[in-house]
TrEMBL record:
Keywords: Membrane, Transmembrane, Transmembrane helix. The chain crosses the membrane at residues 98-116. This is DUF4126 domain-containing protein. It comes from the Bacteria.
Length: 153
C-alpha cells in the first residue's frame, strides 16, 4: 500500500510542485511519517519544514498571476520531478525508496500534463483565479489526506 501513497503524492506534485514537499516535511517534523520511511532526516528539521511551507505558500499565491509560467516548462517539470521523487520516497519503506522515487516522479510528470490541459480548458470558462483556487484546494487537501493515510499504514 505504501507505493500507492508515493504515486498519489507524486500526482499532487504535478499540480503544485511544492505542496508535497511542504506536506511531507511538516509530517516528518511532527513524527507522522510511516515508521520505516525513506525520508531524509533533513526533512524533519523545523527550518526545512518552515522553508518548504513558505515556498509552497508562495507558489500557491504566484499561480494566480497572469505572468506565472506554465507548469510544463522545463524548470517547472524539474521541480515537479524532484519533489514528486522526494515526497514519494519519504512515504515509502526504506527498502522501496528507489522504486517509490521513480513512481513519484513519473506520476508528477503525467499529472502535470493532465492537469495543465484541464486547467487551460477551465481558464477559458472560469478564469485563472477561480480555477487556480479550486486546484489549490484539491492539491492541499489531497496532500494532507495522503500523508495522513500513509502515517496510519
Amino acid at each position: 500500500m505504501a507505493l500507492i501513497h508515493s504515486i498519489l503524492m507524486g500526482a499532487v506534485a504535478g499540480m503544485r510542485s511544492m505542496t508535497p514537499l511542504a506536506t511531507v516535511a511538516n509530517a516528518a517534523r511532527m513524527g507522522a511519517l510511516p515508521a520505516d520511511s525513506g525520508a531524509p532526516r533533513l526533512l524533519a528539521g523545523p527550518l526545512a519544514s518552515a522553508g518548504a511551507l513558505a515556498v509552497a505558500a508562495g507558489e500557491l499565491a504566484g499561480d494566480k498571476m497572469k505572468s506565472a509560467p506554465d507548469r510544463i516548462v522545463p524548470a517547472g517539470m524539474v521541480a515537479r520531478v524532484a519533489t514528486g521523487a522526494l515526497a514519494g520516497m519519504a512515504l515509502a519503506p526504506r527498502h522501496q525508496r528507489g522504486v517509490a522515487a521513480l513512481l513519484g516522479a513519473g506520476a508528477a510528470v503525467g499529472a502535470a500534463y493532465l492537469t495543465f490541459n484541464l486547467r487551460m480548458r477551465a481558464i477559458d470558462r472560469y478564469g485563472q483565479t477561480a480555477t487556480g483556487a479550486v486546484e489549490d484546494a484539491v492539491a492541499v487537501g489531497s496532500a494532507a489526506l495522503i500523508a495522513r493515510s500513509a502515517a496510519e499504514d
